[in-house]
Amino acid sequence: MEYRTAPKHGEKISLLGFGAMRLKTKGTSVDLDLAREQLKTAIDNGINYIDTAYLYGNGSGSNERALGQILNELGYRDKVYLSTKMNRMAIHSRSDMDVMLEKQLENLQTDHIDFYFIHNVISYDDISVLDDMGLYEFIEENTKSGKIRNIGFSFHGSYNDFVNIVDDYDWDVTLLQHNYIDNNMQAGIKGIKLAYENDMAVIIMEPLKGGLLAGTMPREVEKLITNSNTTRSNVDLALSWIFDTPEITCVLSGMNSIDMIEENIEIVNNHPSNPLNKEEMELIGNMKDKILELNKISCTGCNYCMPCPKDINIPDIFKYYNDKNLFPEDKSYGVHHTFILYNANINGIIGKAHDASLCVECGLCTSKCPQQLDIPNLIRQVDKSYHGKTIRRFKPLIKKIKDIIM
């Protein structure tokens, strides 16, 4: 395993980190047996950075509790650096900060958090609002007591806002979205270099852009790969592209299967002796251009926008729309398969109806979206592309059929 040094306090952190946002569930709870096996495999093979957040899971600390229980049962707490995040949207006073931190320590069954982030910061104003409530006093008190070892912020805003936040406080770490599609978006590579120049550890999220850069690629992208001389997988190309950036400390991968963990570990272990060559860098540039042309909505499926007050299944309908454009050949009897899925989604053919036309533009989803998408406008765009008005005419008939079947 390759390790890199956090500048402020000298922690040796595995280049590959375990992102625990998408732990699989059994029923309504985290599948503890599977998560235990995954964490044990990861840690036994040298991964020593585990990332979670209060919002991950059911939005009230469920993934934190699962990690705390598993690390305690395995006796592995001292083998890893544990990272979690303050849900800034739930903070309305200094006392809220203290209450949340104590709850997170309880969830994680630990007396300290190694890397603590202000979650999903989009602008300098987000930090200023917290500062007015006593954020920096909260940080000073809890770093002095040892409850927090390193303090930072996860960021999804502009480079200019990033500069202002970095200048505002002596941060230890930042968490940035970075992949070969998004290298010039949000803080971008300039933000990574600025953080490094300020002796901040740089942790990377979304290296595979919510899975878009892994697995099956669009036909036109697959042709580019086939016509090249590379022997790397899509995942290898994407991760190695990030690993080759020396200013980066750790790359979080949301590995929710043993196969994924083993594949990612093999890639990072091979990295020191197997960097990308010039042809592979050119290939990635061409892949990026084609994916940007085909992928219409920059949604990573993080589910931060959920639940919707009108019960619209936002991530799913965005995925249908992207898949229709990324894989236009996936048709049966002249109809793209996502048309059937969209129809089933809004009409409740399977499960509960999630009718996109119910959007009232409340803005709740937009305020929480890390990608800063204009979600209400995009919902209308997607619904129009799937002929939502026509589909809804059949709702009474579909309801009658469901009632008969049920």
Which stretches of 5+ consecutive residues score pLDDT under 50? none
What name does the CATH topology of the largest domain carry? TIM Barrel
Structural class: alpha/beta
The backbone outline, from C-alpha atoms, is: globular
At the first level of CATH, the class of the largest domain is Alpha Beta
Mean pLDDT: 88
Domain module tally:
2
Largest sheet: 8 strands, parallel, barrel
Assembly state of the chains shown: single chain
The share of residues in helices is 40-55%
Count of strand segments: 14
Strand content: 5-15%
Q: What would you report as the Rg, rounded to the nearest angstrom?
A: 22 Å
Report, as a whole number of angstroms, the end-to-end distance: 54 Å
Strand arrangement, major sheet: 3-6-7-8-9-10-11-12
Total helix count?
17
Name the CATH superfamily classification of the largest domain.
Answer: NADP-dependent oxidoreductase domain
CATH architecture of the largest domain: Alpha-Beta Barrel
Describe the structure in your own words.
- The chain has 406 residues and is an alpha/beta fold.
- The chain folds into two domains: 3-294, TIM Barrel (Alpha-Beta Barrel); 314-405, no CATH class.
- The chain contains 17 helices and 14 strands.
- The chain has an eight-stranded parallel β-barrel, surrounded by six helices. It has a two-stranded antiparallel sheet with strand order 1-2.
- Helix 1 (32-44) packs across helix 2 (62-74), helix 1 (32-44) packs parallel to helix 10 and helix 6 packs parallel to helix 7 (188-197).
- The mean pLDDT is 88.
